[in-house]
Amino acid sequence: MDYVNAFWVGGLICALVQILLEKTTLLPGRIMVLLVVAGSVLGAVGWYEPLIDFAGAGASVPLPGFGNTLWKGVKEAVDESGFLGLFQGGFRASAVGISAALIFSYLASLVFEPKMKDGK
C-alpha cells in the first residue's frame, strides 16, 4: 500500500503543477519557486511531515519536499545557533542532495555527450 500512496500523492502533485502550467500564465521557474515555498510553509505549520509519513517518496521527492527539507534544516540550525542558523540551516540540510545532483549530472554529460541548443 505504501507504493500506491506514493504513486497517487506524487501523481496528484504533478497533475496540479501541470494544471498550473496549462491554465495560468505563470512561467515554469515561478511555479518551481511556488512549490518550494509551499513545501516550506506546509512544513512550518506542521502539515507536510504527516504527508511524508503517509506517502513516502511521493511527497518527499517533488519540489515541495525540497522546501520542507530546507525548512527543517533552518529550524534545527536556528535552535542550535540562533540568528545565524537562518543562513546556514538550508545549506546544511540540502547539501548532500544538491551535490549528488551536480555530480550525477556531470557524469551523465560525460556518458551522453550533450550538445548545445540552436540559438532560436
Can you put this structure into words, describing what you see?
This protein has 120 residues and is mostly helical. Helices cover 82% and strands 0% of the residues. It has 6 helices and no strands.
Helix content: over 70%
> How many H/I helical runs?
6
Q: Name the structural class.
A: mainly alpha
Rounded Rg? 17 Å
Q: Report the sheet-strand fraction.
A: under 5%
Order of helices and strands: HHHHHH
- How does the major sheet shape up? none
Summarize the structure.
It contains six helices and no strands. The longest helix is centred in the C-terminal third of the chain and has 28 residues, at 85-112. The chain starts with a helix and ends in an 8-residue tail after the last helix.
